[in-house]
């Protein structure tokens, strides 16, 4: 399977990121809880050198709870402050303030020694497309907060959202480009819908997904779609088409449609909580 990310986008994203990095103390990096490593871009470590770091396992509602906890532990062992969140429902957001303080402890201490007290932490949210950056910012900022900077008639600048006395958030998130040179990483990103389906063969992708499910979550598809266990990916896809009445020209099974339906069910959590990337299979 072939994936592509346009170099033009990448260059622009990287330039913006470098510019914005100069303005902030803290990088809040969102990853997808279903693929915590594959949804990262390790370049952020270079770009965010010297900044305080916070990793958020977003969409934790779609991934297995015990795996979420294991991944939080994994990131903590790597020296990041890490928290699992569900930005859509707001779960985990209460912990954010504490996590920000924890991540910025060194900076606060440094400030204090220089006699600087109560200077707010300036933070930026970063992550690959579709990981939930805007949803997170909106959930955290809510409606009540006032925007600062860039007032009409005043100097043009960045928009900052004042969360409280201690934290200001850049209102435009930093977009990281996905890294999918590795076939396995590319597949995982495609499964969660981070690579546009138009440039992929949906049926091929669904067959790969069925293969993954057969290995890691046996019986789940069979139960969901009320189909027998064939042990053959294409037969399973045909089974899903039959069970969901995906037909073309009257009575032929429409496996293309079934493929979209299956991926859609997975992406929306209708197959239950599924972690695609386990701690022990990310080699
Ligand atoms: P961005 O491109 O990183 O800004 O991503 P968006 O904020 O636009 O979110 C992409 C999609 O993910 C939207 O459909 C959101 O509703 C959904 N989403 C964001 N956060 C969560 C979450 O924690 N759980 C679930 N289930 N969906 C989420």
In a few lines, what is going on in this structure?
The chain is of the alpha/beta class. The chain is built from eleven helices and ten strands.
Outline the fold blueprint.
Elements: H1 7-21, E1 26-32, H2 43-47, E2 52-58, H3 65-77, E3 81-84, H4 96-103, H5 105-113, E4 121-127, H6 133-141, E5 147-148, E6 160-162, E7 167-170, E8 174-175, H7 183-192, H8 202-216, H9 220-225, H10 233-243, E9 247-248, E10 252-253, H11 255-267
Could you please describe the fold and organization of this structure?
This protein is of the alpha/beta class and 283 residues long. It contains eleven helices and ten strands. It has helices at 7-21, 43-47, 65-77, 96-103, 105-113, 133-141, 183-192, 202-216, 220-225, 233-243, 255-267, and strands spanning 26-32, 52-58, 81-84, 121-127, 147-148, 160-162, 167-170, 174-175, 247-248, 252-253. The strands form two sheets. Strands 1, 2, 3, 4, 5, 6, 7 and 8 form an eight-stranded mixed sheet that branches. Strands 9-10 form a two-stranded antiparallel ribbon. The model is unreliable at 149-155 (pLDDT under 50). Guanosine-5'-diphosphate is lined by residues 58-59, 61-62, 86-88, 127, 129-135. Guanosine-5'-diphosphate (GDP) binds at residues 58-59, 61-62, 86-88, 127, 129-135.
The radius of gyration over CA amounts to 21 Å
- Which structural class best describes the helix and strand composition? alpha/beta
Question: What is the count of DSSP helices, taking H or I runs of 4+ residues?
Answer: 11
Globally, the shape reads elongated
Q: Which percent band covers the strand fraction?
A: 5-15%
User: Which range best describes the helical content: under 10%, 10-25%, 25-40%, 40-55%, 55-70% or over 70%?
Assistant: 40-55%
């Amino acid at each position: 399977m072939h994936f592509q990310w346009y170099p033009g986008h990448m260059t622009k994203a990287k330039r913006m990121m470098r510019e914005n990095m100069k303005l902030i103390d803290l990088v809040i990096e969102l990853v997808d809880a279903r693929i915590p490593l594959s949804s990262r871009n390790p370049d952020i470590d270079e770009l965010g050198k010297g900044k305080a770091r916070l990793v958020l396992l977003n969409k934790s509602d779609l991934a297995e709870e015990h795996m979420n906890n294991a991944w939080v532990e994994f990131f903590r062992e790597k020296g990041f402050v890490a928290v699992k969140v569900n930005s859509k429902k707001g779960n985990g957001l209460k912990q954010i303030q504490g996590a920000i303080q924890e991540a910025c402890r060194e900076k606060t201490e440094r400030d204090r020694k220089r006699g600087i007290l109560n200077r707010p932490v300036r933070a930026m949210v970063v992550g690959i497309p579709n990981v939930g950056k805007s949803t997170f910012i909106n959930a955290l900022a809510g409606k009540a907060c006032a925007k600062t900077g860039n007032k009409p008639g005043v100097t043009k600048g960045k928009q900052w959202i004042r969360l409280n006395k201690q934290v200001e958030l850049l209102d435009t998130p930093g977009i990281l480009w996905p890294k999918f040179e590795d076939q396995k990483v590319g597949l995982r990103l495609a499964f969660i819908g981070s690579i546009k389906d138009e440039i992929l063969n949906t049926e091929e992708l669904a067959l790969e997904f069925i293969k993954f499910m057969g290995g890691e979550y046996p019986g789940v598809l069979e139960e969901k779609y009320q189909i027998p266990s064939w042990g053959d990916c294409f037969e399973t896809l045909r089974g899903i088409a039959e069970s969901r009445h995906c037909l073309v020209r009257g009575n032929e099974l429409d496996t293309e449609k079934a493929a979209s339906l299956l991926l859609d069910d997975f992406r929306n959590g209708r197959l239950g909580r599924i972690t695609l990337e386990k701690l022990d299979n990310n080699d």
